[in-house]
Amino acid sequence: xxxxxxxxxxxxxxxxxxxxxxxxxxxxxxxxxxxxxxxxxxxxxxxxxxxxxxxxxxxxxxxxxxxxxxxxxxxxxxxxxxxxxxxxxxxxxxxxxxxxxxxxxxxxxxxxxxxxxxxxxxxxxxxxxxxxxxxxxxxxxxxxxxxxxxxxxxxxxxxxxxxxxxxxxxxxxxxxxxxxxxxxxxxxxxxxxxxxxxxxxxxxxxxxxxxxx
Amino acid sequence: xxxxxxxxxxxxxxxxxxxxxxxxxxxxxxxxxxxxxxxxxxxxxxxxxxxxxxxxxxxxxxxxxxxxxxxxxxxxxxxxxxxxxxxxxxxxxxxxxxxxxxxxxxxxxxxxxxxxxxxxxxxxxxxxxxxxxxxxxxxxxxxxxxxxxxxxxxxxxxxxxxxxxxxxxxxxxxxxxxxxxxxxxxxxx
Lengths: 213, 189
Known about the structure:
heterodimer, B: alpha+beta, four-stranded antiparallel beta sheet
């Protein structure tokens, strides 16, 4: 049952992703061409459009808000510096994600022995979520305390995954990208993406079994 | 009949991660920092060779104005000393034939009939220089002698520092020509 739900979700993501990227791809490419012609302000538009998503991916990969901020800026700078070579073969979004993920993976490899977690603010909307209601009923814990606890556990559980598995699960479950998009970004096959995703979920379920049971 | 026990799914838990978002202030700072880094990338970096050549040439860029200033000071001092013993050589008056020049005045231009121009040749810093020092108006021709004292600063460049040097000459009518003798030079440094 859960496998079929997952496949259906993936199909929906892939379908809606294709529709979105057709128009978004063109709009982005127009902006890219303006940047290539020397219009620096056009890059600001691209940055404002994607900065939250890029930051979110990097934050969820690092679980460190300061690193995420620095790495997101670094990724945008890299994109800005090499935008002249962007030919539009892939969408700007995929290209930018690839730069961001690669920048983050390089950082994580360099600093694999130094792991500091620093968490982002949790928006108020989470207080009314069914998940939090369920967990607070189950554990009889105050919501604010539960939010902190949950944030801690989730981030720590994600950090137990290998970088490759973490990347796939972050892009699929949190950033809602399709298998194909993840394959393009991580430069591997869809099969590899699926198998990494399956393994990552298994591992996370094991890590978070206290919350899931 | 007991209610089936509810269970959370991993996907539901991971939804929670989407609620971790920075506030608006963060984005303002992010934008400002990015702008700074972006500007640094726009500024063309100096190549290695241009940096090297600039470092080699840097001392000469200090030396050139420095040495120029030194030479200028030397010339000025030399000229200052020279002006103390300046003896102007007046050129001979070649002609008594009248000519007309325009004498510029601050308020108007007066046409004046002259019979001669007195020019002086001086050596300033080993370079002979000739200046028209005076004109003899036709009206003065009646006089037997014509003596003028003039400040040499009017004919010398200001940089020679001959601030208050005066020389005089005397013109003497001698038959159909004018003889000129140089008077005593006085210096008022």
